[in-house]
């Protein structure tokens, strides 16, 4: 496991993606700072207008922007690379001959992808907090319910938020893991995973498919706002966790079925 | 690579020291079918413990597929595999930690250093001890002569260095069996010799070594036993001497009386060959029981002036060409 | 060497998930056994429920046959500066609200929107409303409890976009049931139709069936908690419709006193705070309104209405007629001007988001149909007629009856 983490985080690519994610809040903060003369017009992502009053909102805005596209993209890269990447390098055969054990390898690979989800989310939140504090005034934060919490309370919620978003991405990671066992071409697995995230979001936006929405892994992605209410609405957290657990179970067993019967010929 | 002084003669052919009943690798009717084509068609390998066993065959003859099945990477379509004291792939967890392998060339993480690569593979086996990992990795790197390049990123390694790293990976822990697929691929003559010496020294330590190669010369120099694959089938298996004895010796006569010489040889039932030189007559000793000295005596009796008389022992090369047919990459 | 069994889990897991979700629904539909109650007994039971303290989540679903505003609005949601689209948005699709009630004097309703929230907090004689998207808060202080109640009603209606006839902002089920129970009159058959399970609690089903043939309302059923008498759900059935046209009910409820801090509201720094008129002014205004009532079923008016409404008919088929000018007040313009395109049917305020305007226009375009003497909107439960001279007629009846009433 430790070895998996080392390999993941010694890759330049991993850091490039984390850097790109960190850039989101920085860009948002700088753009808002530069153009903060005019009052907000009500356009743009939620919380954008609040940034000038309180820098701590940079994290939230960045997260809202990152969730639909950038986070799924980076998770697609990491999850799609899990098995297919090793197969492509040829290192998969040496891991298995070591022997790593196929189930153990799958579990470790999945855990690595899950950890990346958390680090990626935390990166957006933490850089958002830092750049926001640098460029804007910081103070007690207004929740959606109109109540105000202190900075400490806000950080607890931000941590919960990062956790929520991480959990949200676990289903996608499981899908990526499965796709990754199907091919030895990592780019294909990455693209397929990221594309699935996009497709699920498009389906989720079609009211005609409302019956399908509760089954889409993207269904609760923006539900993190429920952690910003007073008191916190835990149902979306629980529903989301249950949904993601379902995806992990289905695609985890699919990945197991595929990987444990697969001939490693690369 | 530490070069060991050549304690033994350059002729590497050794007889198995170990009881033949104890087999490190044994297969029965091992078959792999891809689609409708049998890539490996029912082979029965028997690799005695303690031998250096050559697995010879042209490219595409099914060697690597066989090795993948031995190591549990690919599932056999039918047949059984015994590896050390276990059945593959059922006992992979118990058996594979005692097996070092180089399969179809080395594979590396280009963004990691050589040392980090080995640490990664070592960590993949949960039986290895993390406390001795660094020492074992460094020892393996020293053994293949990569100590100086241990911290270099592996993408900067030459082909030969990568090959050495792959061999080092197989040596991370004390192994009972080494399965090395084309271990000298990409190595210069010096490196090839080093690998040969390494294999010899490992074998002296009691490790069974299963070396696949398409190079006859290499197998001939390293191995005491050999199995020959051709088009997915095992066409021969045994000690080198056994194979040689199955071969046909040749005689080469240098004489000014070549017409008479041909007549004498033909009288003995041999087919003579021409070489464009009038003073040389060669022939296969294709008549069972006919010894070279008998041929020489017959020539002398017929007053053929023999300037030179040579016998070339059973040529493995000829034998392998006969076994594997055309297209066998004999000389490499 | 058959390894196909390794695929077995991948087949079993989805099957288990499907089975679990199916059986979960089946369990929820079991009907509880409860001691029999007459309609009268049940109504009295409901009256005792108003002192309860509880909190829970209310799901509201409307199926009024209006076009879905969700298609016409930007993903961020509607802008609260556009009251028409907000009201219609609340009337279509689904909404979730959290309700905290501590006796009759303290309540908080939170309408949970995506990345936003609308709150109404009632604490004794203080009322706050807050909209997170606009970061706007409104504050009202009332002198006494009864006035608070009346004002709450007004506030709720104002929040429902100054559009009194479409005031279906999700409220507590208790409030909704009260509204409907107040309508009980000789035209209505009131029965206890059975039992049900709502929010994992057993409940009585109170069924109100209008006997007036001209109304669009088929029946109203109220689910009353069997232990506390708190209404847990309301469903309104339109005549000839299979599914409920309007449904609101608790999806979960907890009968424990909510945290008192929830009813203490301090507007956040940076929010726009509007103070309502002083108590005296308000009292005068309320008095004026009460005097202006001509029938017991009159709906309250948004503050500042130019004239008083008139009421035609009674009971379930009551038609309310708002005088000339009302259409403009509500963001609608009469179509009397022959050159008036759809662009003029809305009152476009400066600062409004062009996308919102376009969205609301597209929606009105779909919803309003040309009829004799004006434009009309027919929903499953009510009809609206905007006459060419600017009057607005509303009632739980068909458009024909509205046209007839407008010509009297």
Automatic annotation (TrEMBL), chain C:
Region entry Disordered, spans: 288-311
Database matches in InterPro entries: LolA/LolB/LppX, Sporulation_related
**Position of the signal peptide:** 1-28
Keyword set includes Signal = yes
Key words, A-Z: Signal
The answer, when asked if Signal is one of the entry's keywords, is yes
Output this protein's name.
DUF2092 domain-containing protein
């Amino acid at each position: 496991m430790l070895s998996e983490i080392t390999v993941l985080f010694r890759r330049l690519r991993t850091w490039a993606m984390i850097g790109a994610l960190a850039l989101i809040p920085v860009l948002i903060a700088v753009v808002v700072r530069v153009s903060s003369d005019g009052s907000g017009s009500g356009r743009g992502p939620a919380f954008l207008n609040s940034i000038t009053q309180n820098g701590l909102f940079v994290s939230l805005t960045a997260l809202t922007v990152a969730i639909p596209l950038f986070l799924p993209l980076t998770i697609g890269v990491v999850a799609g690379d899990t098995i297919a990447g090793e197969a492509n390098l040829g290192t998969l055969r040496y891991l298995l001959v070591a022997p790593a054990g196929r189930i153990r390898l799958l579990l470790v690979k999945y855990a690595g992808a899950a950890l990346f989800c958390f680090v990626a989310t935390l990166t957006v939140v933490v850089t958002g907090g830092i750049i926001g504090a640098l460029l804007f005034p910081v103070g007690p934060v207004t929740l959606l319910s109109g109540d105000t919490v202190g900075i400490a309370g806000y950080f607890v919620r931000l941590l919960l938020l990062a956790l929520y978003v991480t959990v949200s991405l676990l289903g996608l990671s499981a899908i990526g893991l499965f796709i990754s066992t199907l091919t030895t071409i990592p780019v294909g697995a990455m693209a397929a995973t990221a594309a699935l995230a996009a497709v699920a979001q498009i389906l989720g936006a079609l009211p005609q498919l409302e019956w399908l929405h509760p089954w889409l892994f993207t269904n609760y992605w923006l539900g993190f706002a429920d952690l910003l209410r007073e008191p916190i609405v835990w149902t979306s957290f629980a529903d989301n966790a249950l949904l993601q657990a379902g995806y992990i179970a289905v695609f985890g067993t699919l990945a197991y079925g595929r990987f444990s019967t697969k001939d490693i010929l690369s | 690579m530490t070069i060991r002084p050549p304690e033994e003669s350059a002729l590497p052919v050794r007889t198995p020291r170990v009881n033949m009943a104890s087999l490190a690798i044994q297969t029965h009717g091992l078959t792999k079918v891809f689609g409708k084509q049998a890539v490996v068609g029912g082979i029965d390998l028997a690799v005695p413990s303690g031998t250096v066993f050559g697995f010879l065959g042209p490219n595409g003859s099914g060697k690597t597929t066989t090795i993948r099945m031995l190591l549990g990477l690919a599932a056999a379509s039918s047949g059984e595999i015994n590896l050390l004291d276990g059945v593959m792939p059922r006992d992979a967890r118990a058996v594979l930690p005692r097996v070092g392998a180089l399969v179809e060339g080395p594979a590396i993480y280009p963004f990691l250093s050589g040392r980090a690569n080995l640490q990664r593979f070592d960590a993949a086996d949960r039986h290895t001890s993390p406390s001795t990992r660094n020492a074992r990795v460094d020892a393996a790197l020293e053994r293949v002569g990569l100590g100086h390049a241990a911290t270099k990123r592996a993408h900067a390694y030459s082909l030969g260095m990568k090959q050495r790293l792959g061999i080092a990976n197989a040596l991370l822990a004390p192994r009972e069996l080494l399965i090395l697929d084309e271990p000298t691929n990409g190595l210069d003559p010096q490196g090839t010799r080093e690998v040969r010496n390494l294999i010899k020294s490992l074998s002296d330590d009691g490790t069974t070594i299963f070396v696949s190669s398409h190079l006859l010369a290499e197998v001939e120099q390293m191995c005491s036993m050999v199995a020959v694959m051709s088009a997915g089938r095992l066409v021969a298996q045994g000690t080198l001497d056994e194979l040689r004895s199955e071969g046909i010796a040749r005689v080469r006569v240098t004489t000014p009386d070549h017409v008479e010489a041909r007549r004498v040889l033909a009288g003995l039932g041999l087919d003579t060959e021409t070489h464009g030189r009038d003073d040389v007559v060669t022939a296969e000793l294709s008549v069972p029981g006919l010894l070279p000295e008998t041929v020489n005596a017959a020539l002398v009796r017929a007053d053929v002036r023999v300037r030179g008389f040579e016998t070339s022992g059973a040529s493995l090369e000829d034998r392998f060409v006969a076994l594997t047919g055309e297209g066998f990459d004999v000389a490499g | 060497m058959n390894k196909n069994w390794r695929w077995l889990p991948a087949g079993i897991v989805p099957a288990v998930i499907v089975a679990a979700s199916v059986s979960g629904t089946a369990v929820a539909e079991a009907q509880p056994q409860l001691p029999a109650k007459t309609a009268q007994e049940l109504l009295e039971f409901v009256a005792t429920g108003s002192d309860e303290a509880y909190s829970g989540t209310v799901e509201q679903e409307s199926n009024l046959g209006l076009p879905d505003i969700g298609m016409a609005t930007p993903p961020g949601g509607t802008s609260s500066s556009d009251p028409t689209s907000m009201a219609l948005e609340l009337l279509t699709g689904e909404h979730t609200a959290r309700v905290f009630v501590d006796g009759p004097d303290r309540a908080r309703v939170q309408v949970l929107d995506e990345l936003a929230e609308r709150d109404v907090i009632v604490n004794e004689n203080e009322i706050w409303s807050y909209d997170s998207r606009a970061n706007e808060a409104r504050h009202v202080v009332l002198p006494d409890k009864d006035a608070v109640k009346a004002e709450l009603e007004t506030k709720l209606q104002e929040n429902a976009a100054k559009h009194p006839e479409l005031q279906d902002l999700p409220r507590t089920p208790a409030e909704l049931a009260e509204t409907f129970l107040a309508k009980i009159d000789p035209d209505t058959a009131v029965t206890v139709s059975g039992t049900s399970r709502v929010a994992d609690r057993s409940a009585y089903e109170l069924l109100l069936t209008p006997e007036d043939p001209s109304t669009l309302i088929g029946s109203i059923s109220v689910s009353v908690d069997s232990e506390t008498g708190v209404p847990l759900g309301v469903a309104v059935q339109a005549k000839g419709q299979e599914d409920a046209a309007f449904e609101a009910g608790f999806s979960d409820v907890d009968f424990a006193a909510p945290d008192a801090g929830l009813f203490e509201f301090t507007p956040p720094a940076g929010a726009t705070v509007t103070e309502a008129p002083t108590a005296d002014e308000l009292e005068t205004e309320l008095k004026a309104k009460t005097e202006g009532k001509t029938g017991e079923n009159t709906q309250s008016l948004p503050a500042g209405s130019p004239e008083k409404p008139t009421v035609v008919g009674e009971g379930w088929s009551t038609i309310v007629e708002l005088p000339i000018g009302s259409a403009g007040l509500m963001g609608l313009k009469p179509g009397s001007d022959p050159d008036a395109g759809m662009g003029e049917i809305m009152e476009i305020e400066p600062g409004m988001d062009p996308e919102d305007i376009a969205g609301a226009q597209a929606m009105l375009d779909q919803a309003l149909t040309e009829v004799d003497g004006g434009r009309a909107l027919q929903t499953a439960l009510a009809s609206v007629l905007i006459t060419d001279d600017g009057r607005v007629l509303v009632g739980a009846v068909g458009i024909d009856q509205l046209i007839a009433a407008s010509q009297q």
